[in-house]
Amino acid sequence: MIDINPDIEFKKEVKRLSNSSLNECMQCGNCSVVCTLAPDDSPFPRKEMIWAGWGMKEKLIVDTDIWLCHQCGDCSTHCPRGVKPADVFSAIRQITYRHYARPKFLNTILSKPIWLPVAIMLPVIVILSIIFMAGTLQIPEGVVNYSKFFPHAWLNGSFGIITLIIYCFAISGLLKFRSDLKAGYQDTKARNGFLKRFIDTSNEIILHSKFSSCSAQKSRKWSHLLVFYGFIMLLFVTGFAIIATLTHNYPLKFTNPVKIMGNVAGLMLVTGLGIMIINRLFNKKNYGNSNYSDWLLLISFFLLVISGGIIELARFMNWYYAYHLYFFHLVCVWFVVFYLPYAKFGHVLYRTIAIGFAKSIDRSSTR
Ligand code: SF4
Ligand code: SF4
């Protein structure tokens, strides 16, 4: 027997984020039939559509199946009522990582366009304050050298501390999410040990294998792979650059292999993000509804990569506005890295936990 504890605000939020007419779902089951990722046993998304229509937030935010969906859009394409289950799932994922993320005010300022000025002003004020405390808050004279504007020790130290704080909160949210998932499946015994589920989860994420089953959105796999590996390469390059600043070997020469790797990563990211943006703009029928959170992630990530390339050029060309562009780039870094657990990018962290849990209870596609 299922306890129904409707949360009307939750239902309204799902409808707002997905732009779906939830009540029109007639439970025909077409969506579950066409979904190649749904297990035979209690398949998704039909059952979640009725739960969403009833506002069953408590059940949905601990439903592993929500994260097994890779938003291929096949179910939405075949839904006879145009209810868009793929977008409903995306909305529920968004509500879930917001539910677990702390502190709450960061959730709030990233949730709606009306808060965007606050979301921008926060990094602007914090970064300006740090540079002010470093005593370098002015445009330096002479050859462009970003460390004269924001000394490396201050940059590494302050951004390191902020990263630590943000990700401590993120880890506590993820642990709570994992323990709630377990509580939601308390009648199901773990069937696979840690090593097996670690290998299976890593394989799935490294290869993005589940994306191959999409028929409505064929380019999704490649755009996600380009962004995924481009981002990992960029993280490596950033780590290397931090070490180089500590050993006074920064900036890197243009011919340095790590520098070349950074530029290749930038190209991969621009290509992957460009494909995603074009698909969302011009192929709405197959790629579904794009809400504020989708655009916030895509645009801030795109601006981060583009501004990274431009400040490299600005330093090389000794442009007067190099420092202004550098400051803009730092704000973009803040948006992508520090807002990650609160924005659409958060699904990367939560999906990894959910897939790992699904592997432990052997809940995956058998088709
Ligand atoms: S979402 Fe559409 S396809 Fe799925 S059960 Fe409802 S009406 Fe049928
Ligand atoms: S979007 Fe794709 S993976 Fe997700 S429920 Fe629909 S058909 Fe299945």
Shape, per Cα inertia axes: elongated
Mean pLDDT: 89
- The low-pLDDT segments are none
How much of the sequence is in beta strands? under 5%
The overall strand count is 0
Tally of DSSP helical segments: 18
Distance from N terminus to C terminus (CA atoms, Å) equals: 28 Å
The percentage helix is 55-70%
Radius of gyration: 22 Å
- Hetero ligands: iron/sulfur cluster
- What order do the helices and strands follow? HHHHHHHHHHHHHHHHHH
- The secondary-structure class comes to mainly alpha
For the largest beta-sheet, the strand count, sense and barrel status come to: none
**Quaternary organization:** single chain
Keywords:
single chain, 367 residues, mainly alpha, elongated, binds iron/sulfur cluster
3D structure, described in words:
The structure is a single chain. The protein is an all-alpha fold and 367 residues long. The protein has 18 helices and no strands. The longest helix is centred in the middle third of the chain and has 33 residues, at 152-184. It is elongated. The model has no long low-confidence stretch (mean pLDDT 89). One iron/sulfur cluster (SF4) is lined by residues 25-31, 46, 49, 79-81, 83, 85.
Provide a quick synopsis of the model.
Helices cover 67% and strands 0% of the residues.
How are the SSEs ordered, and which strands pair?
Elements: H1 8-18, H2 30-34, H3 46-53, H4 57-60, H5 65-68, H6 74-78, H7 85-100, H8 104-111, H9 116-134, H10 146-149, H11 152-184, H12 194-207, H13 220-246, H14 257-282, H15 284-287, H16 292-317, H17 322-338, H18 346-360
Helix pairs in contact: 1-7, 9-17, 11-18, 12-18, 13-14, 14-16, 16-17
The structure holds iron/sulfur cluster (2 copies).
